[in-house]
User: Fold this.
Amino acid sequence: MRWFASWDHRATAEALEWSVRRALMGEPRLRDVEAPRIRISASGAEAITLAGAVSTREAREKRNRAQKVGGLVTLHNELRTDTDLTRQLRSRLDADPRTRGLGKDSVVFQGTAESRGTATHDAQLVARKMAEAIDGVYGVANYVQLSRRVQAADEKRAA
Assistant:
């Protein structure tokens, strides 16, 4: 029975990640939409980091269920809400002169950035790339109406 005395009872990092995932999936408010969007990573066999995006602040706070997992010593909560992502998307769009008009109406809902407004085709593509670059955005829905900017030379010819 000597081999049994030296057996390490601590969970591996993978087992701890799996236990936290099961705990989050056991929460009804998280199971269907939120839990699949949460990235869980273990640093060592006692610390877990939750990253990604959830829809609401209440969903972010539901991570308390994960804190009850046996063997877990430290839980780092880096979850961001759709409101946080919307704020970041709007600030990026407003910072670029090509996409400035799109920032006002664009939102992030359940991880999908929804670009709204009126812009040129080039500005539409730039806005899409900006949204895709935000950590926590999993898709982009394009509701931008295309417009054609009239240049000064065209205005003179039309007059």
In short: The first strand starts at residue 38 and ends at 42. DSSP finds seven helices and six strands in the chain. The domain at 2-80 is CATH 3.30.1340 (Histidine-containing Protein; Chain: A;).
